[in-house]
Design a protein that fits this description.
Number of strands: 9
Shape: globular
CATH architecture of the largest domain: Alpha-Beta Complex
Distance between the termini: 56 Å
Structural class: alpha/beta
Order of helices and strands: EHEHEHEEHEHHEEHEHHH
Radius of gyration: 19 Å
Largest sheet: 9 strands, mixed
CATH class of the largest domain: Alpha Beta
Strand content: 15-25%
Number of helices: 10
């Protein structure tokens, strides 16, 4: 029997990453406090149910195969399938690993949480290194409302500041879905916007920022995890270059933020993409991303389909 008043159910949306998923499930199986429930919503072709079966004696798992692939739709399906007595609903990427006591630390945090806490994220211990961080730290950039040194805030431009690794519990305006727990009642009010199809870039920003208008959001310092981004099922640099501009404008429009500041921020983003070409790392990807930025910017400015 769980020593905690809350029961936690986690949902993993996965696609074509059996090795990564296996490592994530093994990490969960090694927790000092294991998830009460786990739902795997799989869009793989072929299905990876054989991976899930290996852990059914260690974890309480429900497996669902769903097509077409869409992280947002897969998560919504996972939420609808949850058992009634799960009071906390979590989302996990399929390429992460935890400290052995991370879930225990997270559950302890929720034991003491106030009723207005809507969601809490695990603490990312290996955040990706930022390129050209000096651009984001220029005071003029903050003055324009494009970026800020403050962690986890959403700027008037619609750009969000990264949370990185925190050394103490931190309350923020948005949290990523990589490793997170929400109050189940949140999903009686909100759902992941199905507009974010396929790669679903910025769906976590959209969902959590929406929730932050009514609830507090936190990052729990003691509940650490590592993200090892999979090289599988990634889209091309060109496709991502277009998507990051298209989805940012959608987010800004939806939340009534500043479109002029957004376009200025997108121009800066395109400039960074251009500079990254000369880093000589992932040259073809960075070149494609820059070209995708340019094509989508032209489309947005001309209002063409």
């Amino acid at each position: 029997m769980s020593p905690y008043k809350n029961k936690a159910a986690f949902i993993i949306a996965t696609r074509n990453r059996p090795d990564d998923l296996s490592r994530t499930l093994e990490s969960l199986a090694q927790q000092t406090h294991r998830p009460d429930y786990l739902v795997i919503v799989d869009a793989s072709e072929p299905p990876v149910d054989y991976i899930v079966k290996k852990f059914q004696d260690k974890l309480h798992i429900q497996y669902i195969h769903h097509l077409p692939p869409s992280a947002a739709q897969q998560r919504n399906i996972g939420v609808k399938s949850l058992v009634a007595d799960a009071s906390l609903v979590g989302f996990l990427d399929d390429d992460i690993e935890f400290h052995s006591d991370s879930l225990e630390k997270m559950m302890i945090f929720w034991e003491k949480a106030s009723e207005d806490l809507g969601g809490a994220s695990f603490n990312l211990l290996n955040p990706p290194r930022q390129q050209f961080p000096w651009i984001k730290s220029i005071p003029f950039v903050a003055w324009l409302g494009l970026y800020s040194k403050e962690k986890g805030v959403v700027m008037p431009s619609g750009f969000h500041t990264l949370t990185g690794t925190v050394t103490k519990d931190l309350f923020v305006q948005w949290i990523p879905t990589g490793a997170i727990l929400w109050r189940k009642c949140i999903f009686e009010e909100f759902a992941f916007d199905s507009w974010f199809t396929g790669y679903s870039y910025l769906e976590d920003l959209d969902f959590s920022y929406t929730a932050s208008k009514n609830y507090k959001l936190a990052i729990v310092a003691d509940a650490g995890y590592f993200h090892y981004p999979s090289t599988k099922s990634r889209i091309s640099g060109y496709s991502f270059g277009r998507l990051e501009l298209k989805n940012r404008v959608y987010f800004v429009t939806k939340h009534h933020l500043s479109l002029p500041k957004c376009y200025l921020g997108l121009a800066v983003r395109t400039g960074i993409s251009f500079l990254k070409i000369f880093s000589m790392k992932n040259f073809s990807y960075n070149l494609g991303r820059f070209w995708g930025n340019c094509v989508e910017m032209a489309k947005l400015l001309l209002h063409t389909k």
